[in-house]
Specification:
two-stranded antiparallel ribbon; Dna Ligase, domain 1; Arc Repressor Mutant, subunit A; 139 residues; homodimer; DNA-binding; 2 domains; globular; alpha+beta; 3-stranded mixed beta sheet
DNA sequence: ACTAACATTGTAATCATTACAAACTGGAAA
DNA sequence: TTTCCAGTTTGTAATGATTACAATGTTAGT
């Protein structure tokens, strides 16, 4: 996606498309690794030495509020973020630390939803060993 | 469950059944509210004024290690614990804060598991409004 | 009863996140 | 274009759950 398109997307949602917000959102769109706030900060400080950690947090909150970014629910120390807001699950490898997307059937996901509850967020989360690490460890 | 039975259960797993560990585990067995470490501490300090917060953390870690207690994966500030280790999901109400168990079909849960991965933990998590709060807010 | 391994306790440290206030910016109104 | 102001960014200080650590206490097996 072009920077200008991203800017328009933010504008259309009433979010002022500042350089910083664009940078954070663009980073998330380019890196589908579910980074933490600090990872994003580390990458962006390289390009703009005055970038502030607080701004990363602020931008993430704004993007999450606008439903453009999802804050993942995981048992890790830090929070992780995902620009892919389509329904899917996540797998956290305890060996290599990688967080992988898990494709999940839409009907199956729907079937999980508890009757009577108003579901605003849903997360299907796994942890263990990814295929590569499972192989290396002997499963 | 009787205190002695709990003690035997711990012993059989090589865990010394100390008063403190028994108290923490018993609290979790009696209170199916998915309490946080601090909630447990607040309850147990009443009965034993020398009870330490660190001991609650230590005991919980030990119980989790022994697979007697599950550490829940949620987007809350604190970690929550559950003595019910059978597979089921959780719903966190953003209004009243309650964490409810969500019964989930075993076959359905199994169907979610991604091929090729070694799954050690699995969590199906929802947040939103519980039936009571949804009704009050007008869904 | 002795002793060595294991547990508990209280305090201090850690670390991700938030609070806050001052400085800055960008777009609307004149 | 200039002015102005609401909204943003920034750096530092505070928060708060959890962990580290070291001293003290306890238990189980000999």
């Amino acid at each position: 996606m072009q920077y200008q398109e991203i800017a328009k997307m933010l504008s259309s949602r009433g979010i002022r498309p500042t350089q910083q917000r664009l940078a954070v959102y663009d980073y998330l769109l380019q890196h589908r690794t579910h980074p933490s706030a600090d990872t994003i900060y580390g990458a962006l400080i390289e390009q703009n030495p005055t970038f502030s950690r607080t701004t990363v947090y602020n931008s993430l909150h704004t993007l999450v509020q606008a439903a453009l970014v999802k804050e993942l629910t995981m048992d890790t120390e830090e929070r992780h973020y995902d620009a892919d807001i389509r329904p899917h699950g996540h797998f956290h490898c305890r060996q290599c630390g990688e967080i992988a997307d898990i494709r999940l059937d839409g009907d199956l996901l729907q079937a999980l939803r508890p009757a009577g509850y108003t579901v605003q967020e849903q997360e299907v989360y796994f942890s263990g060993l990814c295929p590569a690490c499972g192989e290396a460890t002997g499963k």
